[in-house]
Design goal:
Layout (H helix, E strand, L loop, with lengths): L1 E15 L5 E21 L10 E14 L20 E3 L4 E14 L7 E3 L4 E14 L6 E5 L2 E12 L5 E5 L2 E2 L2 E7 L3 E2 L6
Parallel strand pairs: 1-2, 2-3, 2-4, 3-5, 4-6, 5-7, 6-8, 7-9, 8-10, 9-11, 9-12, 10-13
Length: 194
């Protein structure tokens, strides 16, 4: 998949798996503003109880922000739902080998997390390379919020421009972690649950 653009789109690429695995997908050059997600790893309960698996997924050259019109979908108060994240991995997804390179988010509308992994989701082999967040909102943005289970997490050349945000917030588990060339407020709760 190459060359997707939308202004005020809903979700650019909804990957849905329930019972049949999604394998060997390359998605590149996604640009624009989106109300919900740029890429969503979900199942929507199509076949309750069936596996929701995604293998060998590559995301490259994503330049995105949240849609201004998407703000009307937000609740009047309280935290922003993780399902609004540009990259959303919903439970009970099992993702093996997710490679994300060249993700740039310049955000002026909505301070939601960049990548959310829900509790009950598993990611085996996650590489984030050349990922950058420029936060122009008054609130904090976390690049990667993990509430699930990650094994083999690598962050390479990753930056966050705002002192309000951070690169990684972990309230789930991370089995193995390595990083190089990180800029911004780095990590919070990295070892919790490890």
């Amino acid at each position: 998949m190459d060359g997707l653009f939308a202004e005020d789109g809903w979700t650019a690429v909804p990957l849905l798996s329930a019972g049949s695995p999604i394998r060997r997908i390359n998605i590149r050059n996604i640009m624009g503003t989106y109300r919900y997600n740029v890429v969503a790893f979900t199942n929507h309960g199509v076949h309750p109880g069936e596996a929701s698996t995604f293998e060998d997924i590559t995301l490259r050259d994503i330049h995105c922000a949240k849609s201004r019109r998407g703000l009307t979908d937000l609740p009047p108060a309280g935290p922003i739902w993780s399902g609004f994240s540009p990259i959303w991995i919903d439970r009970p997804a099992v993702v093996r080998h997710l490679h994300m390179e060249g993700y740039t988010r310049t955000e002026a509308q909505q301070a939601c997390d960049g990548i959310s992994i829900e509790s009950g989701a598993t990611v085996d082999g996650l590489l984030l390379r050349d990922c950058h967040v420029v936060n122009r909102t008054p609130g904090p943005i976390v690049l990667l919020r993990n509430q699930g289970a990650i094994s083999n997490l690598a962050l390479e050349n990753v930056s966050q421009s705002s002192a309000l945000g951070m690169l990684l917030h972990n309230s789930g588990t991370i089995t193995d972690y390595r990083s190089s060339n990180l800029t911004g407020k780095h990590l919070e709760k990295l070892t919790e649950g490890v």
